[in-house]
Amino acid sequence: MEVIIQETANSGCLLGAKIIAKKIREKPDAVLGLATGRTPEKLYRELVRMHREDGLDFSQVTTFNLDEYVGLPPENDQSYRYFMNEHLFRHVNIDLAKTHVPAGNVADLHAECRDYEKRIQDAGGIDIQLLGLGRNGHIGFNEPTGSLRSRTWIKILSEQTLNDNAAVFGDSESMPKHAVTMGIGTIMEARQILLLAFGPAKVRAVMEMIEGPLAAVCPGSALQEHPRSTIVLDEPSSAGLRFVDHYKWVDRNKLTWQRYD
Ligand code: F6R
């Protein structure tokens, strides 16, 4: 794992945007895996700025989002499709037909899950997958103790996740308790992983993900096995790590081609 500790969440998001923009410039028809949530909001804002001011071109880009709540139609303002339209898609020159978010409101969700996997395969696989990290260590909506080899499927959200997301959802009573999510096996097939985790609430999950054992109790720890994963943290989220000095040493001593800035 490449662990990069930035001073603030803001600088972490700017770095994350640079990493994604670099991929798009190298490969204009890149396939991006995307995440929702509070963590990447500023990253998307920066990508929009890069599009407007630096000409970052999304015209050939394809995207696959990690997850969607079951039961919410795309036009519901709490759906992840709505989130993506608002935070990124409608501000850049992306072809909406090339943006994929699992459908949470179709009659046959099992068929949707199988089809989502096929669409990823048909697109040639994901070049870079953006992830956030749940306070309980989840990635996508793969909650603790689920299989580390799972595929896109319907998952039950944990009580902690429901509580964490209730603040954003507003009305926690009507919050869906199920989601369609890429599985950990699906995520692990992405050629590159970029995970962002910021703030003191993520300290424990970050410790378990990076320095804990590879274990289903912390789904994020599966990334220890990924050949190319970059974890971007801020000072508060990295506070519990044992090897902070080492991560900073490595970062200072990178060769030019290993740097993103
Ligand atoms: C979002 C997702 C989740 C979030 C995680 C962190 O698509 O799959 O795993 O990344 O719950 O959420 P925030 O960023 O709101 O702390």
SSE diagram, text form:
Layout: E1 2-6, H1 9-26, E2 31-34, H2 41-54, E3 62-65, E4 67-69, H3 80-87, E5 99-100, H4 109-122, E6 128-131, E7 153-156, H5 159-169, E8 178-181, H6 184-188, E9 193-197, H7 203-211, E10 229-234, H8 244-252
Parallel strand pairs: 1-10, 2-3, 2-6, 3-5, 6-9, 9-10
Antiparallel strand pairs: 4-8, 7-8
Helix pairs in contact: 1-2
Bound molecules: fructose -6-phosphate.
Fructose -6-phosphate (F6R) binds next to loops.
Form type: globular
Number of helices: 8
Bound molecules: fructose -6-phosphate
> End-to-end distance, in Å?
19 Å
* CA gyration radius, whole angstroms: 17 Å
Number of domains: 1
Key features of this structure:
globular; Rossmann fold; single chain; 261 residues; alpha/beta; 8 helices; 16% strand; binds fructose -6-phosphate
Notes on the protein architecture:
Helix content is 34%, strand content 16%. The longest helix is centred in the N-terminal third of the chain and has 18 residues. The protein is an alpha/beta fold. It has a single domain, classed as 3-Layer(aba) Sandwich (Rossmann fold). Helix 2 links the parallel strand 2 and strand 3. The protein has a 7-stranded parallel beta sheet with strand order 1-10-9-6-2-3-5. Strands 4-8-7 form a 3-stranded antiparallel beta sheet. The two termini are 19 Å apart. Helix 1 crosses helix 2. It binds fructose -6-phosphate. The site of fructose -6-phosphate has 14 residues, from loops.
